[in-house]
Design brief:
402 residues, alpha/beta, Carbamate kinase, VC0802-like, 6-stranded antiparallel beta sheet
Length: 402
């Protein structure tokens, strides 16, 4: 029995007319597959509007209440889409994340899916219904509503596809797949017909907005192919799948993340202070990455720890910074006005060639480098925020268009 999972997000669910078009597309998919489940995002700017509304009332709204608020956006979309499907003669039923069995941990705003119990979805599909699910949301083991963070509807779709043993997962948005760079930044960005799970995951972690990194991880673990497509332009797509080693060799993408804050802790007690900071960050549910530590002995004030935070995705970041400064005083510093430039591809660090040439390229164009980190599939450099667009274009010209 053929089962497919589709996800519709972005501007493709922005208004009633687009929901009608999507309903017709789902009707065509239902004619081709035995079972269809559809995951939807909130309509248009609904989520942003809800966040703005909350911030008019509180500079640092409680995360639990934010989840209760934000989860309503997807519920509006799923119920309206079901109405549109009924008008097309398709029997459909809408389910929230909790109703369809998306079980998460107890973190609010960036919860992790720990289990999917799709029994209600399977029961409804067995009756011949299209099941429309509100993405981006689940329920914790404490039975609280949780949300999955930016791009969380992708995670819902892929996690559900894995639980249903679906043939494939189709992610529809307002772009027709994955590009070598953000097309709004680099006019000549190249469309990538296919990309490996690790490369896509690194791109997502580094700031690419096409697919969610956790969703790609789910797909990789269950070997589910992801088809990233434009909702209304069907000329091409990007398939994310397992690929032979070496297929993604060299620089395949240039990605940026705009709002980066580097936190530096110094002094003889830097490691102990960092342990306290990390515990506080965990309680405040602030993800940290790119950790670097230099520890000597407690009497040596050259010891230090640094990490970076994607501050644009953190509620109440200014309040958190203020608390950390009050606690650690001169031993903590925040480097702001930074962005991250990342080169993505397999085996970039087998030699130092790519890194050295990139450093020279940026230096020749008077772009300072505030930090460097590497993985098997990524080289990331911290650069001044006002220079990030120029840096992306320079690196794309050098490594993609060369």
């Amino acid at each position: 029995m053929t089962c497919i999972v589709q996800k519709y997000g972005g501007s493709s669910v922005a208004d009633a007319e687009k929901l009608k078009r999507i309903a017709r597309m789902i009707a065509m998919a239902r004619a081709e597959a035995d079972q269809v489940a559809v995951v939807v995002s909130a309509m248009g700017k609904t989520t942003n509007n809800l966040v703005d509304m909350a911030r008019k009332l509180s500079a640092s709204p409680p995360r639990r209440e934010m989840d209760m608020l934000l989860s309503t956006g997807e519920r509006i979309t799923m119920s309206l889409l079901c109405m549109a499907l009924h008008e097309c003669g398709i029997d459909a039923v809408s389910l929230t994340g909790s109703q369809c069995g998306i079980i998460t941990n107890d973190r609010h705003n960036d919860a992790q899916v720990i289990e999917v119990r799709p029994f209600r979805v399977q029961d409804e599909m067995a009756k011949g219904k299209v099941v429309v699910i509100g993405g981006f949301q689940g329920v914790s083991y404490k039975r609280d509503i949780t949300t999955l963070g930016r791009g969380g509807s992708d995670t819902t779709a892929v996690a559900l596809a894995a639980a249903l043993d679906a043939e494939r997962c189709e992610i529809y948005s307002d772009v027709d797949g994955v590009y070598s760079a953000d097309p709004s930044v680099v006019v000549g960005a190249r469309h990538l017909p296919e990309i490996s799970y690790p490369a896509m995951q690194e791109m997502s972690e580094a700031g690419a907005k096409v697919l969610n990194a956790h969703a790609v991880q789910f797909a990789k673990e269950k070997q589910i192919a992801i088809y990233a497509r434009s909702t209304f332009e069907r000329q091409r797509e990007t398939v994310v799948r397992k690929m032979a080693p070496g297929t993604m060799a060299g620089v395949r993408g240039v990605v940026s993340e705009q709002e980066i804050t580097r936190v530096r802790i110094t002094g003889g007690n830097a490691v102990t202070d960092f342990q306290w900071v990390l515990d506080y960050m965990e309680k405040e549910q602030v993800p940290v990455k790119e950790l670097h530590a230099t520890a000597t002995n407690e009497a040596n004030d050259q010891s230090g720890v640094s990490f970076v935070v994607s501050s644009q995705n953190v509620y109440g970041w200014e309040k958190i910074k203020h608390h950390l400064t009050n606690q650690l005083s001169e031993h903590i510093r925040f480097d702001i006005h930074l962005s991250a430039l990342s080169l993505i591809g397999e085996g970039l660090n087998r030699t130092n060639t790519v890194l050295l040439e990139t450093m020279t390229l940026l230096g020749d164009n008077h772009i300072g480098i505030a930090g460097i980190t590497t993985t098997s599939f990524r080289i990331s450099l911290l650069v001044p925020k006002e220079k990030i667009t120029v840096a992306v274009r320079l690196c794309h010209d050098r490594w993609i268009d060369a």
